[in-house]
Structure formats: structure tokens, C-alpha cells
Design a protein that fits this description.
About 65% of the residues lie in helices and about 5% in strands. The longest helix has 23 residues. Strands 2-1-3-4-5-6 form a 6-stranded mixed beta sheet, with helices on both faces. It contains 24 helices and 6 strands. Helix 1 runs antiparallel to helix 2 and helix 4 runs antiparallel to helix 5. The chain is elongated and about 100 Å long. The chain has a domain of about 140 residues. It binds one DNA strand through helix 1, helix 3, helix 5, helix 7 and helix 9. Keywords: Repeat. Pfam families: DYW_deaminase, PPR, PPR_2. It comes from Salix udensis.
DNA sequence: CACCTGGTGC
């Protein structure tokens, strides 16, 4: 090879490397300068360099220029097509990516594993189960479904299309599972609401040889948050600290942690994590601000929102509309307080959600296990003891506080004498009963934490107020709308919810 | 050469 040709090839490789660096670091200006230089030097029609240009322009948000480069090419290979498809997806147009896929097929260029995973991503983004299945089918026929990256994309495609079972069976048959396969499956379970399954998978992952990364933790923390599994979440928090995963600099982990503590009614811990973040993302602000609002602490919520507005952080439409909701609630509460006299006559607090089709369900975490209860549920092996302790609590409350049931909250289609029984077996009460029987008190916090899928019933609300008084412990009840923190006979919601 | 995975809420 003569020196001249060698230096030309060397030059070409230097351009390519620099372009890839520009793509990675989103350096549009520098990328454009390289583009100009290589056109001048006669590299304008070079296949590899043109591909790199498409990638660079796509990543930097200049899809029009990427398309121009693509259109002017004398020949295009699978990389050119795939790079442009990715560009469309990255710029928010997955449909165009799918159209390109069919154009590519017509042009006679054969797709590879990268093309398939890109297309599966587009299907997932579009919620396109039908076309996703077709792509999956083609992958099977061409043998690409056994390629790890493609398999991962199939898992993600099915879970994005709401087909968690199909995602799971893909995960099962994957010949090689890597970190991303596990992460995709855990995220899939979490998004689909199968948080317990997500946690089971996470534990399996910990037991195995697999590494864990920030994606694993964010998804798993989200699962803990949705479940209210604070013990498990705490362990992950501790693991993050000992494992050197600094959430002070990792936005996603910090947000997930704040969300966990907020959803468990631990605003103090949420605030602590928040204060440790170096660059506070608008999402972490949102989580904390709404957390305070949902706990009934409107003052702190408003104050934080004011701080956010005074900071240099750009607020988004999401937090603005959320704050509208907070202001609306605040106004309602103010009105509600003025209307207190009426509230006694008006069936205030009648639980409209008990009329809904959805069955009331409560749960509580005891020794890292989540126990679920439905209203009138006697499936739990400790049911008898639960009833005993609840009766005991009623007796003490009557004696010490003169508490009697407000029977009006009971279901209406039952015999009068059995209304007391109905009230006793509301799911939130059963969950609390179990916590009392099993010592579900979180010793370090002196709190019992219960979750309910519907609004907490007015009678149970009174009952828990009483419990917090006579037992001298706090209760945190997260219902469908908000938090109730009961302490010393009072609730943070001020009885308006 | 490129491709896959994550966070706030209603």
C-alpha cells in the first residue's frame, strides 16, 4: 500500500471516529463542520461516512438533514436504513420508522438483528401488537429471535403492548439472558402492576451471578413504591449506599427513592434523599411537592413549589397541571371547613367508591411479605385472631374514648344487627388487625402502614384515629387519593378527603 | 459503523 492511499484511509477513519464522538456527545456544530470538511475533501459519497452522518444528525435532532444525506447516497446498506429508522424513533416518529422498514424490504436490502430490534421498539412505542407479532414471527423464521438483543426487544415490545404473559414466556425461552433481559422483564412486571412478580425476579437476580445496575434499581424501587413495600425498599436503599450507587448524582435512582418514601408516607425520608441530590430534576421536585399535598401538608407543598419557581429549573406542563389539582383541593377544603355545619346533615364521607364495581382491597407488609385483604375476607389463616384483636380494640375505645361505630357507613342492603359485623370486616381494618396480631409495627418508626385501593371509609377513619390515641402509635394509610397520617387521635387530612 | 433497558402523576 502506498503512503498516499494509507494517509487517505487514515483520514477517513479519523472523520468517522470524530463523527461517532459527535453523535455520542450530541455535538451538532462540530458534526456539521466535519460534514462540510469531508464534502470538500471528496468523501461526500463515502458509504460508511454517510452512515455516520445519518446517525449524528438523527441523534442531534436534525432528522431533515439525516434524510437529505440518506436520499443523496449512491448506494445504501442495511446500516444506512437502520440508522435512519433509529433517527425517526429518536425524533418521536416510530410510524415513519416502520414505513422505512417496508421500503427497505422492497429495495432488496436484508434486515439484520439491529433492524429487527429497532422495529420492535417502534412497535412497542406505537402499541402495535398486531405488527409487533408479525415482526416477532419474521424474527423466528429468520432465526434472529435467538439473538439476545432481539429477544430483549421482543420482551419489551410485548410488555409495552400490555401482553405481560407473552413477554414472560419470551423471557423464559431466551437462550441467553443478560442484564437488559432481566431489567426489561422487571420493568414490564412493574408497569403491568405485577409488582410482587417484579420483586421475585429481582431477588432471583440478586441470588444469581447477574450484575445489577441503575435500571434494575429504579424499576425495583418503583415496584416497592407501588406496593408500599417499605422494608424491601429500605434494603435497596441501604444496598445502594454500600454498593456505591450514588443517588446524589443519579437522577433516576434519586427520583425512584423519593417516590418510594413519598408513596409510603415517609415525607421526612423523601426530603432527606431530596436534599442529597446535587442536581435536582423537576421530577424529584414534583414527587415531593405532591407528596406533601397528599399528606394534607399544603403549606409545605406550596412553599416547595414557590422554591421551585424561584430556582432556575424549568417547570413542565405536568407539574403545572398537578399544582392546579392541589390548588383546587385546597379551595375545596377551605370551603368544606366553612360548610361544617352542613357537613353533618349532608351525607359527607359516604364512601361513593364502596358503590363502585371494584372490590375494596387493602394490604399490609409484614416481614417483607405483602398480605392482601378484601372486605369480609376470611381467607387469612389468622382471621380468628384478627377478629379477636379488633373486638378488643373496640372495647378499649368504648371504655377509654367513648367510641361507637358510625353505622351509617355500612353497606345498606344488610340486616341492621349485622351492620356492626360488616364494619368490623372492612379490608383496611382487617389489614390493621393483622399488623396488630403479628407485630406489624415498624419499631424504628413506631408506625403501622396500610394501603387501600379505594378511598378509606369514614368509619374506619374514625376507628384508626381512636387506635392511634389509645395505642400511642402512628398509622399511615395510603388510599386511592391521598395519605392519612394518624397520630394521637388526629389525622393529617383534617377529616377532609 | 448501528440496536435493547430506567424515573415524577391522573
Amino acid at each position: 500500500m502506498n503512503r498516499g492511499l494509507f494517509s487517505v484511509l487514515n483520514e477517513r477513519q479519523k472523520f468517522a471516529n470524530f463523527l461517532r464522538f459527535c453523535s455520542k456527545s450530541l455535538l451538532l456544530d462540530q458534526g456539521m463542520q466535519v460534514h462540510g470538511a469531508l464534502v470538500k475533501m471528496g468523501f461526500g459519497f463515502d458509504l460508511m461516512l454517510s452512515n455516520d452522518l445519518i446517525v449524528m444528525y438523527g441523534k442531534c435532532g436534525r432528522l431533515g438533514v439525516a434524510c437529505d444525506v440518506f436520499d443523496r447516497m449512491l448506494e445504501r446498506n442495511v446500516v444506512s436504513w437502520t440508522a435512519l429508522m433509529c433517527g425517526h424513533i429518536q425524533n418521536g416518529n416510530p410510524l415513519e420508522s416502520l414505513l422505512l422498514f417496508s421500503k427497505m424490504a422492497l429495495s432488496g436490502v436484508k434486515p439484520n438483528d439491529f433492524t429487527f430490534s429497532t422495529n420492535l421498539k417502534a412497535c412497542g412505542l406505537l402499541n402495535g401488537l398486531y405488527i409487533g407479532r408479525q415482526v416477532h414471527d419474521t424474527c423466528v423464521k429468520t432465526g434472529f429471535d435467538t439473538v439476545n438483543v432481539v429477544g430483549n426487544s421482543i420482551i419489551d415490545m410485548y410488555s409495552k403492548c400490555g401482553r405481560i404473559n407473552e413477554a414472560a414466556s419470551m423471557f423464559e425461552v431466551l437462550p441467553v439472558r443478560n442484564l437488559i433481559s432481566w431489567n426489561a422483564m422487571i420493568a414490564g412486571y412493574t408497569v403491568a402492576g405485577f409488582c410482587k412478580k417484579a420483586l421475585v425476579l429481582f431477588r432471583k437476580m440478586q441470588e444469581g451471578e447477574e450484575f445489577l445496575d441503575e435500571f434494575t434499581f429504579t424499576s425495583t424501587l418503583k415496584a416497592c413504591s407501588d406496593l408500599g413495600a417499605i422494608k424491601e425498599g429500605n434494603q435497596i436503599h441501604a444496598f445502594l449506599i454500600t454498593g456505591g450507587f450514588l443517588y446524589s448524582v443519579n437522577t433516576a435512582i434519586a427520583c425512584a427513592l423519593i417516590d418510594l418514601y413519598v408513596k409510603c408516607g415517609e415525607l421526612f425520608m423523601a426530603r432527606r434523599v431530596f436534599s442529597h441530590i446535587e442536581e435536582k430534576h423537576v421530577i424529584s421536585w414534583t414527587a415531593l411537592i405532591l407528596g406533601y399535598a397528599q399528606e394534607g401538608n399544603l403549606e409545605e407543598s406550596m412553599d416547595l413549589f414557590r422554591q421551585l419557581r424561584e430556582s432556575s429549573i424549568q417547570v413542565d406542563g405536568f407539574i403545572l397541571s398537578s399544582m392546579m389539582g392541589v390548588f383546587a383541593d385546597f379551595a375545596l377544603v377551605q370551603q368544606g371547613k366553612q360548610m361544617h355545619a352542613f357537613a353533618i346533615k349532608v351525607p359527607f364521607g359516604v364512601d361513593i367508591s364502596k358503590l363502585k364495581k371494584e372490590a375494596g382491597c387493602s394490604w399490609v407488609e409484614i416481614a417483607k411479605e405483602i398480605h392482601f385483604f378484601y372486605g369480609g375476607d376470611d381467607m387469612h389463616p389468622l382471621t380468628e385472631k384478627i377478629h379477636e384483636i379488633l373486638k378488643e380494640m373496640e372495647r378499649r375505645m368504648k371504655e377509654e374514648l367513648g367510641y361507637v361505630y358510625r353505622v351509617k357507613y355500612a353497606l345498606h342492603d344488610v340486616e341492621e344487627e349485622s351492620k356492626m359485623e360488616n364494619l368490623r370486616v372492612h379490608s383496611e381494618k382487617l389489614a390493621i388487625g393483622l399488623a396488630l396480631v403479628c407485630g406489624g409495627l415498624e419499631e424504628e418508626r413506631k408506625v403501622i402502614r396500610v394501603f387501600k385501593n379505594l378511598r378509606v371509609c369514614g368509619d374506619c377513619h374514625e376507628f384508626i384515629k381512636g387506635l392511634s390515641k389509645i395505642l400511642k402509635i402512628a398509622f399511615v394509610v395510603r388510599d386511592a387519593n391521598r395519605f392519612h397520617r394518624f397520630e394521637d387521635g388526629l389525622c393529617s387530612c383534617g377529616d377532609y378527603w
